[in-house]
């Protein structure tokens, strides 16, 4: 059962995450308005001082204005600092929450639910797109609200001095604060919509280039890989240039609007002086107030562009957060299962997507304490899908999967993985030390426990031969280790975890024949007497397991012991004979 994605504007969903921080957000708005208001009042009072000083008044007549200038100068810096502190605090707290939500969602989706995301693009969503959304709080909320408060105050003051001039200022501020940002955003619409996806394409291209550098070099295809990166980079550069053009358009229109409005106010003020309705001191205050008022809206065109990009980034983030989980957690879970465990599949069917063909079609399987079963078959037969069902990475489309007699989906997925675990196909080796990689299975493990697990995986002698022992770094993806050593490290990690049911998915894959046979022999040795599901292409030694199940096209084609399947003359016998020829 898939969880249907939630709907709603992505920016509004981010705003909802800031609801617990609304006090800080309101404080940022108030501090921003106060800082900008101090700037407007500072210029207006400075105009008053200059005009009044030309009349040669006594010092007492202008002392209040002098003190106000000093206070406003200090207050402007203090309030601006408060705005930055409160606004960025909200932004960073929300971004931290978003990152935590993404990490938790990735943990729920992995590994089956991540197939629709490319690794490089997913990294871009997690880093670049999340960082872009901070503009919603730093530039998308505080400046417009502060501008509205300051603009209203400035227009009111100008209306009290000269009503027609106040009307001109109101028209200018509305044009500069609403129409100009809207025009800039419209000019940037295409770049805004494409920038996020193209940034993801570039990240994915770079990640693929680095991951496949050795193969590209071996086949002489470096230029092809570099061309893909260069193409994505060129498109992103063109989009950035288009955004820069839109920003320049907004800045130019803002300056034009401010100039026209101030000239209009000046003309009206001079006319009022000529008619005797106004004196030169109020005129200076009027014009300089109008000029300073445009500081409140000067950043809005750029803010409109950045918030537009933040919307695109938020949409890409929401696509990850709303991705349907491949498994559903129970509303009222059963208590955690305890060892020993018995697992059964009955008529198990799995689809990767609704309406897609069955990846598993009516599979029956019984995994009991102490019993070892080998699951074999050609590529794409559904073997790893069985492991995904047992490890709660996928839900069944129909049929049943039970753990200790209860539906496996009735347990919390993490509880299931405490008793069913093992070595997945292509186990990841982290860029840290051997000991740290091994302790992933049990962080509190002692050195003796590490040594015991490594000994059973035939890894301990190699570790002790190294100068730094457990503290030896293994490199990115274990590049400092051979393929056999990486596989044995993954096996030792599975043995250290000590699950009740051990699932080994292609533990000898990607190894050369001699190393593969040696590791297979060690696997059969260390799993003797414990519940094990061995998924493998290597048939050598399977005469030691209790049952062999052959999957073909998602269905059980054959099952029985090694001797029975050899006598049956089916797929298993043909595969055995083929491998026998390669062994000789």
Précis, in short:
Helix content is 61%, strand content 10%. By secondary structure, the protein is of the alpha/beta class.
Please mark out the parts with pLDDT under 50 across 5 or more consecutive residues, or reply none: 1-5
| Span of the ends, CA to CA | 49 Å
Record field, number of beta strands: 10
> What strand order characterises the main sheet?
6-7-8-3-9-10
Shape verdict: elongated
Question: Percent of residues in beta strands?
Answer: 5-15%
Layout of strands and helices, then pairs:
Blueprint: H1 10-17, H2 22-53, H3 59-109, H4 119-132, H5 135-138, H6 142-161, H7 163-187, H8 189-211, H9 213-218, H10 222-274, H11 280-293, H12 300-321, E1 343-351, E2 358-367, E3 372-376, H13 383-390, E4 398-403, E5 406-407, H14 413-419, E6 420-423, H15 434-438, H16 447-456, H17 460-465, H18 483-497, E7 501-505, H19 513-526, E8 532-535, E9 547-552, E10 555-560, H20 562-568, H21 571-583
Parallel strand pairs: 3-8, 3-9, 6-7, 7-8
Antiparallel strand pairs: 1-2, 1-4, 4-5, 9-10
